[in-house]
Amino acid sequence: MRSARIISTTAFLLLIFVIQESLIARINFPISGFSLYIAVLMGLISFEDRDGAIVTGFIGGLILDLSPTIDAPLGQWALVMTAMGYLFSVNRETIGDFATRPAALIFFVALGSATSLFLFLFSGLMLGENNGAVSKIALTVAGNSLWTVLFSPLILPVLSKLRALSLSSRDRK
Question: Which residues, 6 or more positions from 25, have their beta carbon under 8 angstroms from its beta carbon?
Fold first, then answer.
């Protein structure tokens, strides 16, 4: 991943983070909340190659660690999203091309979103954090996954086009 793409990806993720924290987090969704930021980050990771997915996951996790609403150790989201970048990059090769199967991409992003939330909760338990009742956690993860499945068909085509614009001629091959 070139340094210019790292800078543009970081700026884009910061913009989505500001939108998430200032607008989306204030909407009371039925069932549970929706994280636009995690859905966009999972979408970006799914479009990248192995190195790009890991770097994008790390950068996205560092930005997510800046959230004032999260009471977690600094670096926990960076660890989780770096692991998600690795998991996406390894498993993406087995699933195949997402351009011919957009439904697979939507469910892959929703599954990645749910997995990242579970990894965050699991790593929090390992660090001694109190995460709350299991029923509340399950409802939050299920609600976020439902909203991710519903909104991903709107988000992912835009991400695909923005990524294509950010690629250089060397990266397009």
Answer: 33, 69
Provide CB contacts within 8 A for 85, sequence distance 6+.
45, 48, 53, 54, 55, 56, 57, 58
* Rounded Cα distance, 155 and 24, in Å: 14
> What is the rounded CA–CA span in Å between residue 129 and residue 112?
23
Cα separation, 10 vs 128, whole angstroms: 31
Rg (CA), the chain: 16
Q: Which of 73, 37, 41 is nearest to 58 (CA)?
A: 41
Length of the chain measured in residues: 173
Q: Binning pLDDT at 50, 70 and 90, where does residue 172 land?
A: low
pLDDT tens string 8-17: 999 999 999 9
48 and 64 Cβ atoms separated by less than 8 Å: no
Which tokens hold the place of 153?
A: 């068909």
